[in-house]
Amino acid sequence: MGIPGWDVIDFFLHKLPIGGAFVRESISDWKLLRLIWEATHKLMRDEHAERVLLNMGFKIEAAAQEIDRELILTDNNDNNKMKLSHSLVDDEILQDYYKKACNVIEEIGEAVEHLLVLSGRSSCQLQSPSDVSFWLKFLATLAGIVASMRWGEPVDALVAELRLIRNYMEDVFRDLDFPAAAAAGASGDDVNIINDFVTRVASVVVRIAIHAFKYQIYCRKTNDRIKEEERIKLMKPLVDLQHEIDPTNPRFMEFHLHFLVSLHKIGVKPDFCFRYCNYVAPRVRVGDLGGNYYLVIHELLKLLVFTKLEEKEDDQTMPIFFAEFHTVLMETGSLKLRRQNVEPRLSELRINVGLLQTELFLKGMLHRNIQGITFQIKDLLNRAKDDVYWMTKELIKCLEKHPHGKAEYEAEYGNKTAALIQQMDHKVASLHQLFEAKKITEPTVRNSILLLLLNIVAFKAEALFKKLSLENSRAANSMAYRKDQIALLARLNLFTLLCNQLKKETQDMDVIFPQTETFDAGMTGPIINMITPSSQLLDKQNHIRTELRELSPQFPFSDIPKTCMPGFMDFLVRNLKELLKYDPASIEQVRNYIKEIHVHFDSLGSFLMKVSESDIDGNPEVKVLGVRAANIAYKIEYVIDSIESDAQWQHIFLVYDLLEELRIVNKQASSIQLTTSDARVLSSKHIIQVPPNMISRAAINEMVVDLIDEEQYVIDQLIKGSLRRGIVSIIGMPGIGKTTLAWKVFNHPYVMDHFHCRAWCTVSQVYEKRELLLEILRGILGLTDEIRLMTNEDLQLKLHQCLLRNRFLIVMDDVWDAGVWNELRNSLPEDANGTRILITSRLRDVALQIEPDSDPHSLRLLSEDESWNLLVGKVFHGEGCPEELSLVGKEIAKKCKGLPLAVVAISGLLQRIEKSSESWGKIAKSLIAEVMEDPKARCMEILELSYKHLPRYLKPCFLYLGVFLEDKDIPISKLIRLWLAEGFIHDSELKSLECIAEGYLMELISRSLVEISKKKSNGEVKTCRLHDLLRDFCHLKAKEENFFKLITRSDEPYASFPSSDFVPSGLGTRSIIFFPSTDSEPRCPYDISFICRNFKLLRTLDFEMINIGITFPVKIGLLVHLRYLAVSGYMRSIPQSIANLRKLETFVVKGLRGQVVLPDNMWSMARLRHLHVNMHVVFKLGDKEFGGCCELGNLVSFSRLSLSCAEDTENIVKRLPNLRKLKCIFFHPRDSSKNCGQFPKLDSLAHLVSLNVFYFGRAITSEFVLPPNLRELTLSNFHLPWSHISTIGRLPNLEVLKLRLGAFEGLIWEMEEEQFKELKFLKLDDLNICRWNATCDHLPKLERLVLQNCKDLEEIPNDFADIGTLELIEVHWCRQSAEESAKRIREATGDIKVLISSSYSR
C-alpha cells in the first residue's frame, strides 16, 4: 500500500457519512494520538522502545489495510488520492469499521502510556530549528485541545501553564545558534544538559497529552456521567504532571537553573535570564502585597540567576541560596490564599527577602572577583558602591514602611535587620575607599566580603534559633516550626561552607574588618557595630550546634559494627547515587547534603582502596582514618535510610552534623601520602581468581597427611571381623581430622566394593530425626517428591525396606549425644551380613554409650615430621620447600602442636605472603612460645593470625559465614546474594557483582578457611561449610567487633516472647535471619507482625525456614530498604504491596503448597536480580502490558516459572532480556489448540546460560528453539523420540546436559557425529533406554557420566574407556550389567573413578 496507515485512517474518519459529535470527537482523538505518536518517536530512542513502537505500527498498518481493502478506492492516475466507496458498503459496515478504528486508537494510547512510564529511556536532541518548531507546535496544539475539553479550573490552569512554557521556550531558543551549540557540546556536557531539560519538559507534556486522551475516552464511554470524586481522581495525574513543570517547583527550578547556566556557557545572550524572570514572576505576583514587593521579588530572581551563572563548579553554597529563594516564593504564594492576618507574616517575609538580597549581592561580588579576567577589582568596587546604594535605599525604605509585625520578636528582628543592612552599605563603601587609597589589597577585599557574608548568615541563624526557643510545645509540632528548624540547619551548613572558603583564603580565622575613618559617615542614630570578627562568629555557631545536639534524641549508633568494610563504602556510594536518581520527596530537605556526601564518600572510597596493610602498619593515622570513615558511613546510611522511611528534623540535623565530620575526614585523607605504590596494592577488584576446578573437596579436606596406619585400622574395622551389625567410632578433639579420615575411608575403593550401599549424614549438636532420615535415603536410594512428602514413620519404614538384606555402611558424623542412635537404630536392620555404622565424635563417653563393649578409636595428633610434610604439601603443592625456608617452616609447623586444622590454617596464610625467611620469621615470632600447650587454644591463636592477614574486603565475608548453622551445608547462591544485600562486594565495570563475590569465596577456600562440601555438574562450588572451630572463632570475633548477634529462644529476654509484654525491636538492626530450632519443615505459622513495626530499616529478612502462614504479610511492603527477602508459608499469592520494595534484589518464596501467583506490578521492580519460587509461579500479563515497556532488565536468575506453550511465553521472556538462569515449567492449556506441539522460542534470551524445563502436555512436534549461548540444559518429562536430540547436540557451547524423567523415549539411542563437541557432564535419569550406541568420538570432552534409575540400560559403551577427559562414572540404581560395564571401563584405564549405588542385594 503506497499510502501510510495513519493517512488512511485519518481520511476514513474525516469522510465518514455517519456524522454527529461522536465522530468529530474521534477525529480529535486521532489528531491528538497522532501527535503523541510523533512525539514519542522523537523521545524514545532505545532498542526496546523502537521494538514496541514498531509492533504498534504494525497494528495501525493492519487496521489501515483492512479499511483500505474494503472501503477506500484509490485514484488510478494518482495513487496518493483516495475516496470512500459508498457503493460497496452500507452504513452498518461503516459503523463497524468505525468502531474498529476507535479500538485501535484506544489500544495505541494505552501502549504509548506504558512506554513512557520509564521516562529514563527518553532522549530528546535539539539539532536544528525544526526540532524546536516541532515541540512548540506540540505545546500549542496540546493547549488548544485541552482547552476545548472544558474540564473546569484545574484544566484552565494547565492550559495557561502549557501556553506560558511554550512562549518562554520560543523566546529562549530564538537566540540559540545550533552549529555553535553542537561545537560547544563536543568539549563539554552543556548541550547534553540543554537536551536533558527539553527531554524532561517534552516527556511531561507527552504524558499530559496521554492522560488528556485517556480522560477523553473515559468521558465518552460513560457519556460524561462522572461523579465529582471520580473526576477529581481522574484529574489528579494531570495536576501532578502540571506541578512537575511549574517553575516554582524546587526540583524543576534547580534543573532549570542548570539549563540556564549551560545556555550561558555555550554563548547564548544573557537576555534569556530576563525572560526566565518574566516566566517565573507571574506565579508570585500578589496584588494585595503591592507592586513594589513584586519588583523586589523580580530583582531578587535576577540576582539569583546571574549569581548562579558566575558560580564555580565546586561551589556548594548556591543550592542553599536557591532553597531559600524557593522558600520565599512558597511563602509568597501561601499569602495569596489568605484573606486575613497577612501583614505580620508579610513583614517577616520582607525582612527575609532583604537579607537574602543582600547575601546574593555579596555572593555575586565574590563570584565576579573569582572571574577576574572579566572584572577588575576597581570597577567591581565602583559598581558595588552604586548598586549597594540603590539596594540599601530600597530595602531600608521597605523596612521603615513596614518595620515589624505585632510580635515583639519581629520588631527586634526588623530593627536589627535594618541596622545590619545599613552597615553593610557603609562597609562596602569603606572597602572602596581603602582600596582606592591603596591601603588594602585584593585578597583583603575578598576576605572582608566573606566576613560580611558570614555575619549575615550568622545573624539569620541566631535569629532562627531564638525564634525556635520562644515557640511553645504546641507550635513545635507545626509545619512552620519544622520549616524553621530546617532553615536553621541550612544556615549552619552555609556558615560552615563559608568558613571553609575563608580558611582557603587565609590561615588566620580571626578575620577583622579593616578600620577606616569614614566608617561613621552617613550613619544615623546610635552606632552599634554589628560586624563581628570571624572567630567570635564561629564560637556562637558552635554554641548553637551544641544546644541542638542536646535537643536531639540518641540514636542506636552503639550497634554499629567495628569492622572496617571497604566494600560497604562502595555499597553506600552506589545506594546514594540510586537514591538521588530516584529522588523521593522524603529527601527534599537533604538532597543537596546527600549530593555532597556522595562526592566525599566516592573520594574516600578511592583513597581507601589504595591503602595497603603496610600503609596501615607504617602510619597509624591511616588506620584511625579508615575506622572513622567507616563509622561515619554506617551512621550516615542509618540516618538517610531513616529519613527515607520517616523523616524527622533530628534526622536532618544528624545528616548535617555527620557531613561536618565527613568533610574533616575527607580533608585529612587528601593530605595523607601513601607510601605503597598502586601497583603493589591488592585491590578487591583485582583479586586472585582461583578456578573452581583447581580446588577439590579432597584437597580441601586433606587435613591429615597419609596416616596409613590410622586409615588402615578403620578400614579393617569396617570390612573385617564379626558379621553382626557393628559400630566403629572415631573420637578426638576438634580440628584433629575425624571427619576427613571418615570421608577418606568412606570413599576408599575397598570399602566401596565391600558394601552394597553407603550413606553419610551429619548429626551435629542440634539435629532433627526427619532430616537425618532424608539424608540417609538420599545416599541409599535418591530422593523423589513422593519420599519428601512422607511422614517420619513412613520414612523409617522406607529406609528399613531399602537396607534389608543389603550390607550397608552408614556414617554418622559429629555425634554429640547417644539419643540420635536410639532414634535411628530400629531403621537400620540387623541381617548378620557385615553391616557397619561409623561414628565420629568429640566425646568418648557418647561412643561408649552407643556401643558399651567397643573400644573407640582415638585419633592421634600429628608428629612434627607429619605436620611439616602437611605444611609443605599445602603451601608448595607437591613441590619441595626452598632450603632457606626449611628451618623457619619447621618451627612454624612445630608450633601448630600436631593439630591438622592449625597446620592447614597457617598454610593458607603462608601461601599468600612473600615466600622469604623474613616474612615467615615474622609469622613464627607472632606464635608466642609461652602460649598454652593446649592444641585447641593454639589453633584459635593461628586462626586469629590468619584473620589478621586477610584483606579487609574478605574479613566481613568470612565472619558472615558464622551466621549459618553448625555442620550444615551453606548454599553458595544464597551466601553470595546475602553478601550482596549486606554491601560486602565492591562494584566493578568489568565483572558482575555475583562474579566478584564468587572470587571472594574462592579466595577464602584457597586460604583453607572454608571447605567445599558439594560441587555442581559444571565443577563450580555448590555448597560449602565452616569447620566447627572456625565457626566458633567467627562467633567470638563477631561479638568483639559488633558484627552480628546470635540469639536463641533460651536467651533472655527472648525466652519469654511472645507470652510476655516484651517485644523485640532494633532501630539499628539491618538484617534478621531466622533458623528453626527444631522443625525443619515449619508447620505452625509464626506471628511476625512485630518485625514490620519495630525493624523498619532492615536490608535482609530471611524467613525461608519459618512458616509465616497462609497470607503474605502486606506490611512487609513498608520495609522499603529490603534487598533480600525470603519467605515460607502456605500463601497462594503475593500482594501488590511487594512492588513498594524498589530496592529488592533477591526475592525467595518457599511455598508449602502448589502454585504462587505474583502480581503484575512486580514488572516495575527494576533492581530485582534473583526471583525464586520453589513450587511454581504464575506470572501473567494483560494485553496492555505486552504493548508497554515494563521489563525486569536486571533479573539474572528466575525459578520456577510456569508458562503456557503459547505466544504469552515468548512475550514474557522478551521482558527478561538479561536472564542467565531459568528454571521453569512449560504446559499446554487443556482448552487450547493454539501452537499445538510447539516448543516456545527462547532464542531472544541471548544471555541465558542455564535452562531447566519440566514439561506437561501433549507431545512436542516442533524443533527446540534454544539460545545459542546455553551451557547447561536440563529437560524433564518431554517424552520425545531420540531423533529430536540432534537440535540439542548442535548447541555450540553446551557443557552440561541432564535428561530426566522420560525426557526422551526409545529403546535405542543412536548418537550422531559432529554433536556434543563441548559436553563435559551428562546425566541420564529415569529413562527407558535399553541400548546406547556411541563411541568415544561422540563425546570427545566428557568428564563425568551419571546414570540413575535407568533400569533397562544394558551397558555403557565400552569405547568410553578411550575418552581421554573422562574422570568419573556414577551408576545409581541401574541394572547389574550396567554396573559391571562401568567397572570394566575402570579396569581398562585404571584412571577413571567409578561410584556405584545398587538397589539390589549382592
TrEMBL record:
Domain spans labelled Disease resistance R13L4/SHOC-2-like LRR: 1092-1278
Boundaries of every NB-ARC domain copy: 713-879
Pfam family, one: NB-ARC
Keywords of the record: ATP-binding, Cytoplasm, Hypersensitive response, Leucine-rich repeat, Nucleotide-binding, Plant defense, Repeat
Domain Disease resistance protein winged helix: 963-1033
Keyword Repeat attached: yes
Compartments, as annotated in UniProt: Cytoplasm
Role, per record: Confers resistance to late blight (Phytophthora infestans) races carrying the avirulence gene Avr1. Resistance proteins guard the plant against pathogens that contain an appropriate avirulence protein via an indirect interaction with this avirulence protein. That triggers a defense system including the hypersensitive response, which restricts the pathogen growth.
Entry's family note: Belongs to the disease resistance NB-LRR family.
Protein name as it appears in the record: Late blight resistance protein homolog R1A-4
Species annotation: Coffea arabica (Arabian coffee)
